[in-house]
Amino acid sequence: MPEPAHPFPLELLAPPDPARLPLPPAARPEPGVRLLRGAVYAVPEGCRPLATDLWLPAEPSGPLPVVVFVHGGAWRTGLRDDVGPRFRHWSPGPFARLVRAGFAVACPDYRLSGEAPYPAPLDDLRTALAWLHSRSAELGLDTGRTVLWGESAGGHLAALTALTADPGPGTATVRGCAVWYAPSDLARLAEDHPPGAYDPADASTFEALLLGAALADTPERTRAASPVSRVTPGAPPFQVQHGTADSIVPFAQGERLADALRKAGGRVEFRPVEGGDHLWVGLPDAEVEDCFEATVDFASRCAGRSARG
Question: Using an 8 Å Cβ cutoff, are 77 and 116 in contact?
Fold first, then answer.
């Protein structure tokens, strides 16, 4: 068969560049707030497109510092805009409150453990930071003042992202990281749980599903996926909040991250939440509000502004 006179341009089969895709239309979920829901920031091969929600002021007054929220769900499930059941009834919601405090907020997807093993979700969050930087001018973002915030599995990923962030000019600069009740030392989970409650040889744990193998069978990957092993003297400031009664991720995991940061000479604000279980179960509403406000204040200090701008 003769070769075609004009070979098909195979580059046309590639997906469009997310840095050039049109942004979604804005909704107005709260007075003074614009929401751009589902802006595609990456198109990984063999997987769904990854998107981020963007919460912005209705009338921007200049480039804003950015909070990047990373959702939980045991790396297996979850919604990018869900801070957890204690916040679903809030009106205005947590992201609208952050906008009113002077921030832009990005809530990115990442690949779950049923889609791709670690380090895929970490790679995705790094890509999200680069995408935000590439679109910063049109979105009104000051990505040189970016603060990561994650809860549970999202806190684990936020911590890893902050501790391994690219210092180069083509991405956002992470100025701080807030971590809520997150695993930090996967190799010591069995030690931190009650005796017999956690088996590192079990290939069905959420951590094993994240890594693609039982923790006992992949010690190097277990260590690489543990934030405590990524701490360096150059780590950005951290806030670690963890309930003393957490029955899902032991309180000792929060202590381990705070201790590792202190030993490296880093700045860390450790806030034990007395009587708090996972997802802040068991806390009065006022104490849940205190946890949130403490994170807003921390992000404001990292961004070099007062909590109210």
Answer: no
Centre a 10 Å sphere on the Cβ of residue 218 and count the other Cβ atoms it contains: 17
Residue type, 94: P
* 231, amino acid identity: V
Q: 272 by DSSP, 3-state: which?
A: strand
Instruction: List the chain residues with pLDDT less than 70.
Output: 1-4, 305-309
Give the Cβ contact number of residue 68 at 10 Å: 26
Q: Model confidence over 222-276: pLDDT tens digits?
A: 999 999 999 999 999 999 999 999 999 999 999 999 999 999 999 999 999 999 9
Query: Token match 């201790």: residue?
Result: 259
Cis peptide before 31 (omega within 30 of 0): no
What is the rounded distance in angstroms from the CA atom of residue 240 to the CA atom of residue 154? 13
Q: Helical H runs in the chain?
A: 94-100, 120-134, 136-139, 153-163, 189-192, 206-211, 219-224, 251-263, 285-302
DSSP 125-187: HHHHHHHHHHTHHHHTEEEEEEEEEEETHHHHHHHHHHHT---STTSPPEEEEEEES----GG
3-state DSSP call for residue 216?
Answer: helix
Give the pLDDT score at 307: 40
Instruction: Specify the pTM.
Output: 0.95
The pair of structure tokens assigned to 168 is 């180069």
Cα distances from 191 to residues 3, 25, 197, 251, in angstroms, run 65, 49, 9, 12
